[in-house]
Every structure is written in structure tokens, then in C-alpha cells.
Amino acid sequence: AAMRVVAFEKRLELTPNLHARYHPAGHILGSAFIELDSPDGRIVFSGDLGNRESSLQQDTALPPACDVVVVETTYANRTHRSTQATIDEFREVIKTALARGGNVMIPSFALERTQVILAQLDQLSKDENLKLQIFLDSPMAAKMTNLYRSCANEFVPAIAQELETGDDPFDPDGLTYTVSSSESRKINDIHEGAIIIAGSGMMTGGRIVHHLKHNIWRDNASLVVVGYQAEGTLGRKLVDSMHSDAPTRVFLLGDEIIVRANVHTLGGFSAHADQDDLLAWLAPTEASKTVLVHGELSVMNVFKGVLEARDQQVLMPSLGEQLNLS
Fold first, then answer.
1. pTM of this prediction?
2. How many Cα neighbours within 13 Å face the side chain of 166?
3. Under 8 Å between Cβ of 79 and 275
4. Is the Cβ–Cβ distance between 31 and 25 less than 8 Å?
5. How far apart (Å, rounded) are the C-alpha atoms in residues 60 and 1?
6. Average pLDDT in the 53-71 region?
7. In the predicted model, what is the mean pLDDT of residues 244-271?
8. Measured in Å, how far apart are the chain's first and last C-alpha atoms?
9. Measuring CA to CA, how many Å separate 135 from each of 15, 44, 227?
10. Strand 32-38 vs strand 41-45: parallel, antiparallel, or unpaired?
11. CA trace torsion 32, 37, 40, 41 (10° rounding)
């Protein structure tokens, strides 16, 4: 078979002279970074690394010493807000948004971010004794949430303990799964008090676009952005609208619509490592070469300067470029 299950930390023989080992990356469910060993040396590929203040995932494992390390740079130019500060802000944003009288839209990635948001809404409803009306309008997110319920071993102790005792942290009171298209369309009849979680996370497609069309023009509606928005996406345009005095116009399913809803952003829920996380992860590698990937060029340039100030040799390859790592 072309695919097989491999346990974390187990030595895997790829060829007689090449071995691999997967280590927990703490990013999303099952995420791993990879160590490759050969007679010529050791190279470590970070893949996506996790935020050490994640409210769900356990911390990323530390890598071994190696000759070359290839590391992601998504948030390598900044430091996230603390998890507790982010949770506090999220609660206030949700309560304020509901008090405005309209619906609350939360575009969310189906894997990890949706489960974080569900867990926070669950805790909010318990702590504040709130009756919430929540719609998880994403078939993929529904499947992923069911998967999360079986993986307590990967989570921080508080979440793992809830799962083990049967107190499902991903099932807040008032949660409805709208899997079919007809169920999704029925949400259009609700004009106030609904919290709608849907993909895609960057609002480039999916059911969230449908909900934006029906709500973004309402001045009592709210859009709560809880994930990274890449340049050129609808999500980035809506986030940038927060800093513009002129009306923002967007095209949604063939119609031009003026954005009147309140837009809020919360960056602290990120599942990606920030600069401090990356530096802490890189420290044990003592690599002679550090290769930067998976980040915007401006971000990589900032991180390159930070590493070079620490006397590290840094490479920033272009697409298709071949590197000599000897």
C-alpha cells in the first residue's frame, strides 16, 4: 500500500541508508514534523508548527540536533496575544455582537479552528449562563469535530479530561449541525441571534459566502474573523475594511454589496507558531543552515534578519530552486 499508519517517535526505514522519524508538531490533529537521517547528515522539516499557547493541542515536541533545518514562517515576524487575553476578547466580542441584535458570522477552518471556537462557546455558555443559537454549517467541520472526540491523547489536560468524563467540550448547548444544503438555506430566515460557523476560513468560497451575502449589509450583523487571511482573499479585503473610512464594496455570488456589518479580528487563536515559538523550537537544532519556507516574503525577510543577528546561516529558496546543503 502507498499509505500506512506510523506512530510518533518510531524509527522508520525508508531505504537502507535513509531513516525517518515523526515528532508531534502541536499544530492540528495528527500534525508532525519530520526528521530524516542518512550517512550524509540529518535534516529536519518543520511542516506547520503549533502555537505553544494553544487552547487545544499539546505543545510541539522539540527537535533533535541536526545539520539542516527547514522551517515554516507563517507568523515569524510577530508574537501572538496570550491565549487568555484572546479568550477574554472573544467572549466580549461575541456578547457585544449578540447585543447588537443581528447574526454573528464566524468563518472558520474545518480542522482545529472550528473545534477551538466550539470549545470556547461551550465554556462561555456555561460560565455566563447564556442560551446560544449556534449553527455549524459545514459538513467537513462536522466530520472533523466527530473525529476530535476520539483523540483525547493529543489535547491539553483540561480538554482531554472533559472528553474522558463524557462532558463533550465540542458540543455547546444550542448547537445545530446543518449538513444538507436545504438545512443551510433555512438559516436565511433567521435575522438575529444566530452564531453561524462556516467555511471557508478565508471566505474564498463555501457556505460562509452565502451567509455573508445575506448578512454583511446589515448594520447590526457582525463578522468575527478568527483565522489568518492571505493577501488577495475576500477575508483579507474585509479585514482591511476595518481601517478604511470609505465604504467597502464586495462582490458576493454575482452581487455588489456594501459592507455595513461590524468586523472583528482575533489573531491569538492561531494554530501556527509565532516568532517566539519558532526561536524556541529552532534552538535545540544547532543547525549549520536554516531554510525558510511557507511565509510571505516580507515576513521571511524579517525572520531572516533575526536569525542572522544570531549568527545563523539562512537560505530563502525560490520556487523550483535546487539547494546544495552540504
1. 0.86
2. 0
3. yes
4. yes
5. 29
6. 94
7. 91
8. 33
9. 49, 41, 18
10. antiparallel
11. 60
